[in-house]
Amino acid sequence: MSGIDPEIRQAHERPARRQPRPRRLGRRLAALSVFAVIVAAVAVVVIVSLHLHPFRSGAKAPARSAVGPTGPTKPAHAHSQATVTTVSAGLLSAPLSRLAAVPYGTGGALLLGGLDAAGSPTDAVQNFQVGNVTAAGTLPAPDGSAVAAVLGGDVYLFGGVSSTVYQLSGTSFEIAANLPSETADAAVATVADTAYVIGGVSGTTELNTIVAFTPGSLPKTVATLPVTLRYATAVALGGDVYIIGGATAGVPTAAVYRFDPTTNTVTRFSTLRYARDRETAATMGGRIYVIGGESASGTRSRAIYAISPSSGRVSLAGILPAALADAAAVTSDGEIIVAGGTGASGAPVASIYEIKRIAP
Fold this sequence. Notes:
Number of helices: 2
Radius of gyration: 26 Å
Shape: globular
Helix content: under 10%
Oligomer: single chain
Largest sheet: 5 strands, antiparallel
Strand content: over 45%
Number of domains: 1
CATH architecture: 6 Propeller
Structural class: mainly beta
């Protein structure tokens, strides 16, 4: 169980049921029968005296709201219910964390680079399709903590161990541009044919920039965040970019920002229930799903939270089979693919999961 999401523990905890003792069972049943007769009699008196019609067809009781000393009180917070489920879908060729990923093929994903068990960047390109992972070439150089996007039908890889922007052409990579600085541990989201590379770190300097890249143009900084942000995640939905979690000076945040590419403005949008960094996110069915992550104490989470883009409401939507951070996630063919990451011990994992909706 996660140490940073009490809701997960609450979802699993159930009060223990006391088993009835076999002795004195007859006397208890007799007492219950007498009690039931008394309750029924009282109910008849109440119904007659208050002119109630509990069996009237089509009648609905008016909704009641609790009233406190200063007026109506807020309804009790409803427990979150699972709206997604997670299934194991395959394995990477080796345990890896902080891969870059893009949707690819039919319901699949292309997975690029990543950090191995020693924390070293790798050059593998892997193609995940229908539960199978196959080798799909190599990067020009080992890379990890990079991000990727599909623009105009082509795959682009941004930063990681350098500032280079690579374009995948056929089976080979070509240098397409360079970011303003070396950028690792950033977030990325795509609106139309523009990718936005958000935050990250350059050497030891945390970044607060949002850098836009459109094929055929040079990358340029179009906005800044209120704070520096590393290990955040981002998604695009409805033409806006949502920037979720991450860390400032090593301290995880619960902030969710919204970036409007038409005005290049950043505003505070919502707040996660628990601060986290190293989480990943993707969209499905018009909602944003925030997956796993890590607390300031280094505890990794199993939680999957849903964020409503209309209200900003955050709710627990599901639970991962195992604690996970530093994973990659993409939406492909209406489902979310989650690959790699670090488990509860902090070591990389080779797992690939598929997250599916089970409720609207």
